[in-house]
């Protein structure tokens, strides 16, 4: 496995210089909501394994974010779960009464969350004003003090206190999470 390059500097402010507008919108919203964060920049992280060094530097466990849909592509879900837990479709389907869950096509991810594959993040919910995506959170995620996520692009990672995601960010976006319990074995 090739190691990705990581800038080991931990920043607590938004980046200066040229960045995508959707990434800068995340920092602007976090500032508006008075949500502190730590940030590191890195090469593209294509998998959860690429995030292990990022986790170590930030002192967190990166949250695995999966964008899912039903077979008819009429219901869309963002699932937040611990990065080291295995995802079992049947286990989740039973809890949310939705059969045949699968990974949603990239065009819906872009349409509803303004993110691309590899950059899925709870931060994308800020772009879902019509609430087309239902948020599902594994109970183990909310037991952690911090959430690790991307700012809608997978070349930076954020460390944010979980309470700020639950108490400030989600109320602002209007998304009410459904809590699920995934065993992942």
From TrEMBL:
GO molecular function, one term: aminoacyl-tRNA ligase activity
Domain YbaK/aminoacyl-tRNA synthetase-associated span(s) in chain numbering: 44-166
Recorded superkingdom: Bacteria
Xref: InterPro entries: ProX/PRXD1, YbaK/aa-tRNA-synt-asso_dom_sf, YbaK/aa-tRNA-synth-assoc-dom
Keyword annotations from UniProtKB, A to Z: Aminoacyl-tRNA synthetase, Ligase
Pfam family, one: tRNA_edit
Family of this protein: Belongs to the PRORSD1 family.
Name of the protein described by the UniProt record: Prolyl-tRNA synthetase associated domain-containing protein
